[in-house]
């Protein structure tokens, strides 16, 4: 082997394999064609049939080569292993990782790190990067350049932004600014102040807008910038934005914007038009496009799952947090899997159809981000996983002969154990059925034999607050005969802690009826999946009944017959061409009404303490909703428009109490802006004083005038203390300003939700123009009438 290798220009190398040293051959790394080196090395090893690859990380990544004994024709392993591993000497901020080809050729790993900096790892062009402007060389690693942002980084991405550029643009967001940076030329492209901050960012084409946009989501607002920093897109959403992704949701060949926010909603925007909303039960922390209209999502409570448009395919929940999700075809079956990086360092790949785990691995610390790129420049993209401690692993897609099986033997053993346990459970269930069949003709009262006509009945009713119990919706589960309910399990999202609730009455309280109080936190429809154990009074074995019941969207509103109370001052009114019966049908589907209600003129009392809600419909089709809760009014309008299939709906509205609060908030915004400018000017003056005092103190030291030097340093100490105090004041002022701006953006969103379709978009756009021009009176006219004209 040594002789044959020498003829081909290879050199021998010794590796420790288990307890035995073995000699293989390698060609010295040339630095030019790494993939060719690897392929030749692989051919030589395969030629002798003594070794096959288990793990390979390239020489320019400080690699080690691990081999295992085996035949030359068998696969290295049924387990997918990293093709390269890096140990970077920089920590990585979670969810702030990207891959960019900044020179148009070489992919570079880019991530936010500590102290307001972004590092760029580029092992492909060593010694060719300039050190000037924002970019500087890392002292710890020659392959890493550091970009100094001087602010805490909140999001970043990389991609093609300019129409005539050859390389990708790096985009870095903070709480106050957005930077577009040309890494290759080491120059700013644009630097924009963003009042609402940048919590999430995505880059690409949106709808009919011809140029790519850098879209940022911040304080209840979405904003899109082109290559020159011009603002081409703006709209508002319900709460702080946490995740963004572009996806052809409607299948029309144009991208829609999917927005995940802190109010638990996933919203779909076709430019500034809201197409759809999906409500989850926690903050939506991550979104990723998979294929066509299918996308993955992750929540703050450890839930990950997949939607196809508005239909959820599957979801799973973990005790760990999902730090990053990405779509990648890891098993080479032509369909991407959902790759999830977890807070405990685990990485798993799940089928987009079923959620089944097909691969998993573990990093030594929490995952920071999951991306993909051709990092070895061999024409194949790798899945690249990073940890918060700077560990980087790259995985190639599996070869065709693995046939989708990427799990190692231990995982397969776990699956076998799980199937064995399931088999035992089924055998036990079968044995119970056999014993029940025997008990029908016997006299054993412990058998769970029940009458053939036994059914599980459910009823929902509204229960106002009493001295003993808060207001709630009561779920009554009962049987029609002498059987008893031993236990009830209810599975529902967003109602119970852990999404499940168990009622297990004591032996002396067993009966054929179980009542469960339910308090839905939000006005959303909820599916209640109910399982009940039913049997005789002395049974030791029970039949399991399963039933699903939907809780209506507005179930926390109790119809009232006392009309003596004053009606709310807030109202919204609009006209439809629908028949009265259709509105009554909507009422019955969305509220818990007693039998016999056949009129659309009803009044409800909010069980959450929101006061009265009055709904009325005139003979000409005009519908009036009266409530002091503008959020409730918006929910009612959107629900009714969806039920009646109304595409465009204009409305007039007035909410005196809420509008007065908004007017006060706008006044506070002006005051906070004024204070901010004064504090900024004062800090600039103090900075000049500090510079002068430092010069004077140094001059006194050089002249030997120690008393003057001490005096200047004492003054400098006092001035520095004042600067710190002013900074605290400025920070508090800034936080208060952000809270007020969030309230203003939410007010625009709420005014928009009182309309549907084009009138809604017109209201949002007109409100923004009024705020830009500081025309408060026009703003309130728009919110009331839907137009700025008086």
From TrEMBL:
InterPro entries: Bardet-Biedl_syndrome_2_prot (IPR016616), BBS2_CtH_dom (IPR055381), BBS2_GAE_dom (IPR029333), BBS2_hp_dom (IPR055380), BBS2_Mid (IPR029429), BBS2_N (IPR029430), BBS2_pf_dom (IPR055379), WD40/YVTN_repeat-like_dom_sf (IPR015943). This is BBSome complex member BBS2. Residues 564-644 form the BBS2 platform domain. Residues 656-753 form the BBS2 hairpin domain. Keywords: Cell projection, Cilium, Cytoplasm, Cytoskeleton. Residues 758-784 form the BBS2 C-terminal helix bundle domain. It is found in: Cell projection, Cilium; Cytoplasm, Cytoskeleton. One of its GO terms (biological process) is non-motile cilium assembly. Residues 469-554 form the BBS2 GAE domain. Its main location: other. Residues 98-204 form the Ciliary BBSome complex subunit 2 N-terminal domain. GO terms for cellular component: BBSome; ciliary basal body; membrane; motile cilium; neuron projection. It comes from Channa striata. PANTHER family: BARDET-BIEDL SYNDROME 2 PROTEIN. Residues 243-350 form the Ciliary BBSome complex subunit 2 middle region domain.
């Amino acid at each position: 082997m040594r002789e044959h290798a020498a003829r081909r220009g290879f050199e021998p190398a010794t590796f420790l394999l288990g307890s035995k040293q073995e000699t293989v051959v390698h060609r010295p790394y040339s630095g030019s064609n790494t993939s060719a080196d690897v392929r030749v090395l692989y051919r030589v090893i395969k030629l002798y049939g003594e070794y096959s690859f288990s793990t390979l990380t390239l020489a320019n990544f400080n690699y080690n080569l691990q081999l295992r004994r085996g035949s030359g024709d068998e696969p290295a392993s049924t387990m997918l292993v990293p093709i390269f591993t890096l140990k970077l000497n920089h920590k990585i901020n979670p969810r702030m990782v990207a891959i960019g080809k900044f020179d148009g050729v070489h992919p570079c790993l880019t991530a936010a790190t500590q102290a307001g900096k972004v590092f760029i790892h580029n092992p492909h062009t060593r010694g060719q990067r300039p050190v000037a402007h924002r970019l500087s060389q890392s002292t710890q690693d020659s392959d890493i350049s550091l970009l100094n942002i001087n602010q805490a980084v909140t999001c970043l991405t990389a991609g093609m932004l300019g129409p005539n550029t050859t390389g990708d643009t790096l985009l870095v967001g903070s709480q106050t600014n957005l930077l577009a940076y040309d890494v290759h030329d080491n120059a700013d492209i644009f630097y924009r102040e963003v009042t609402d901050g940048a919590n999430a960012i995505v880059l690409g084409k949106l709808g009919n807008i011809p140029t790519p946009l850098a879209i940022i989501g911040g304080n209840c607002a979405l904003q899109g910038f082109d290559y020159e920093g011009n603002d081409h897109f703006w709209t508002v959403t319900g709460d702080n934005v946490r995740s963004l992704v572009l996806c052809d949701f409607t299948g029309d060949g144009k991208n829609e914007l999917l927005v995940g926010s802190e109010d638990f909603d996933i919203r779909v925007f076709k430019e500034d038009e809201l197409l759809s909303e999906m409500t989850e039960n926690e903050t939506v922390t991550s979104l990723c496009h998979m294929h066509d209209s299918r996308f993955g999502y992750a929540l703050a409570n450890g839930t990950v799952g997949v939607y196809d448009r508005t239909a959820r395919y599957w979801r799973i929940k973990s005790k760990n947090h999902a730090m990053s999700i990405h779509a990648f075809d890891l098993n080479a079956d032509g369909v991407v899997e959902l790759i999830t990086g977890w807070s405990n360092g685990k990485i798993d790949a799940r089928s987009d159809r079923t959620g089944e785990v097909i691969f998993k691995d573990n990093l030594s610390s929490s995952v920071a981000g999951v991306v993909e790129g051709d990092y070895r420049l061999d024409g194949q993209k790798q899945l690249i996983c990073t940890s918060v401690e700077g560990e980087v692993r790259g995985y190639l897609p599996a070869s065709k002969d693995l046939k989708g099986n990427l799990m190692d033997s231990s995982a397969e053993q776990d699956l076998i154990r799980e199937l064995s346990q399931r088999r035992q459970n089924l055998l036990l269930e079968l044995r119970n059925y056999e014993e029940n069949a025997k008990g029908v003709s016997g006299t054993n009262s412990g058998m769970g034999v029940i009458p053939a006509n036994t059914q599980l009945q459910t009823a929902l009713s509204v229960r106002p607050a009493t001295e003993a119990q808060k207001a709630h919706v009561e779920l009554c589960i009962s049987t029609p005969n002498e059987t008893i309910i031993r236990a009830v399990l209810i599975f529902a999202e967003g109602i119970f802690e852990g999404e499940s609730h168990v009622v297990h009455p004591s032996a002396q309280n067993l009966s054929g009826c179980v009542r469960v109080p339910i308090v839905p936190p939000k006005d959303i429809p909820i599916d209640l999946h109910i399982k009940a154990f039913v049997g005789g009074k002395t049974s030791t074995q029970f039949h399991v009944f399963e039933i699903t019941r939907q809780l209506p969207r507005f179930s926390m509103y109790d119809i009232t017959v006392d009309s003596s109370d004053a009606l709310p001052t807030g109202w919204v009114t609009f006209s439809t061409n629908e028949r009265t019966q259709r509105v009554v049908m909507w009422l019955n589907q969305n509220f818990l009404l007693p039998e016999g209600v056949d009129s659309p003129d009803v009044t409800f009392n909010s069980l959450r303490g929101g006061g009265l809600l009055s709904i009325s419909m005139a003979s000409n089709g005009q519908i009036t909703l009266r409530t002091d809760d503008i959020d409730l009014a918006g929910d009612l309008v959107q629900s009714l428009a969806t039920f009646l299939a109304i595409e465009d709906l204009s409305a007039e509205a007035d909410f005196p109490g809420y509008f007065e609060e908004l007017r006060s908030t706008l006044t506070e915004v002006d005051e906070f802006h004024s204070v901010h400018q004064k504090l900024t000017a004062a800090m600039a003056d103090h900075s000049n004083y500090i510079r002068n005092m430092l010069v004077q103190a140094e001059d006194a030291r050089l002249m030997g005038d120690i008393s003057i030097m001490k005096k200047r340093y004492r003054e400098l100490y006092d001035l520095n203390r004042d600067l710190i105090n002013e900074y605290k004041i400025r920070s508090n002022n800034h936080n208060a300003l952000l809270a007020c701006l969030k309230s203003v953006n939410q007010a625009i969103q709420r005014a928009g939700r009182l309309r549907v379709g084009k009138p809604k978009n017109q209201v949002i756009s007109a409100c923004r123009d009024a705020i830009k021009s500081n025309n408060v009176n026009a703003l309130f006219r728009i919110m009331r009438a839907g137009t700025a004209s008086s």
